[in-house]
């Protein structure tokens, strides 16, 4: 048996499992998106492009797309800004507290998403800890709206993405060579120049990987935008839920889900093209 055949046999079980879990449901969604919706709202089996024409002709879908991309880019970038210094510290330090700090940094991943969002509601609400403190200190006369708007969604999504960003950055910092930084220091480069000319370029692959991972997670997030947005922040994920559960327009929900998947695949393809260009 050839080497290629042995590799194929070894990969066949994993491939079949992935096909059953991911490919088959996607094919089902694709078929459902070509059905039609009857006058009573019930799904009518058909093979029509009416749903897809409705999807691309609806200006609300373009607004949803822009909102999703905008909030995903913003929250992912903020997560990167906050996570990068901590990840770099954890990668470099030999402190005995390293394990504890790392555990605290990724601890939000151990908390249920709904419970974490309700914790933010208790902190950011009109009568929450932050507004109560600001009013008690005389810094404001009335509560600042921090939830049920874009501000609350940005805060909640940024916090939920940070653990993933930290883990991705630490995993990708393998190319960072301390001897290069020491060489730059011996040549008289100040800390900020060493960071811009040595540290940052060497960690850019990790930054790109972490950014892409968190962008995909932000684009597909539902719990945080729904609860912290209070139904006032409209994104692709929240609209897919509304179409499938509230209005029960399954063909349009399936088409919108596939549309979102294509957007994410395009982002992955762009990342792959840039990565190959850099190498």
What can you tell me about this protein's structure?
With 279 residues, the chain is mainly α. Helices cover 75% and strands 1% of the residues. It has twelve helices and two strands, in the order αββααααααααααα. A two-stranded antiparallel ribbon has the order 1-2. Helix 7 crosses helix 9 and helix 8 runs antiparallel to helix 9. It is globular, with a radius of gyration of 23 Å. The model has no long low-confidence stretch (mean pLDDT 87).
Please give a handful of descriptors for the protein shown.
279 residues; 12 helices; mainly alpha; 2 strands; 75% helix
Note the topology.
Blueprint: H1 3-32, E1 36-37, E2 43-44, H2 50-57, H3 59-92, H4 98-106, H5 113-124, H6 129-136, H7 150-172, H8 178-186, H9 191-219, H10 223-229, H11 236-246, H12 250-278
Antiparallel strand pairs: 1-2
Helix pairs in contact: 1-12, 2-12, 3-7, 3-9, 5-10, 7-9, 7-10, 8-9, 9-12, 11-12
**Proportion in β-strands:** under 5%
Strand order of the largest sheet: 1-2
- What's the β-strand tally? 2
Distance between the termini: 34 Å
Decide which structural class fits the backbone.
Answer: mainly alpha
Our count of helices gives 12
User: What share of the residues lie within helices?
Assistant: over 70%
Poorly predicted runs are none
Shape: globular
Element-level helix/strand string? HEEHHHHHHHHHHH
What is the rounded Rg?
A: 23 Å
The average pLDDT is 87
Specify the biggest β-sheet. 2 strands, antiparallel
């Amino acid at each position: 048996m050839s080497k290629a055949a042995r590799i194929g046999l070894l990969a066949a079980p994993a491939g079949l499992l992935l096909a059953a879990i991911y490919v088959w449901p996607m094919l089902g969604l694709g078929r459902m998106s070509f059905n039609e919706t009857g006058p009573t709202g019930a799904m009518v089996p058909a093979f029509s492009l009416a749903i897809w024409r409705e999807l691309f002709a609806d200006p609300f879908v373009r607004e949803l797309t822009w909102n999703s991309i905008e909030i995903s880019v913003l929250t992912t970038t903020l997560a990167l800004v906050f996570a990068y210094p901590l990840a770099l510290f954890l990668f470099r330090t030999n402190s005995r507290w390293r394990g504890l700090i790392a555990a605290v940094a990724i601890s939000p991943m151990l908390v249920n998403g709904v419970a974490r969002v309700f914790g933010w509601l208790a902190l950011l609400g009109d009568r929450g800890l932050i507004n109560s403190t600001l009013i008690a200190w005389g810094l404001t006369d009335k509560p600042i709206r921090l939830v049920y708007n874009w501000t609350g969604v940005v805060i909640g999504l940024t916090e939920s993405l940070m653990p993933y960003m930290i883990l991705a950055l630490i995993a990708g910092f393998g190319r960072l060579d301390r001897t290069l930084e020491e060489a730059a220091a011996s040549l008289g480069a100040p800390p900020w120049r060493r960071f811009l000319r040595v540290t940052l370029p060497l960690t850019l692959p990790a930054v790109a990987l972490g950014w892409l991972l968190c962008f995909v997670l932000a684009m597909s997030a539902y719990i945080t935008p729904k609860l912290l947005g209070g139904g006032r922040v409209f994104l692709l994920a929240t609209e897919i839920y509304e179409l499938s559960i509230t209005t029960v327009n399954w063909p349009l929900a399936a088409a919108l889900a596939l549309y979102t998947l294509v957007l994410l695949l395009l982002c992955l393809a762009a990342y792959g093209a840039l990565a190959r260009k850099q190498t």
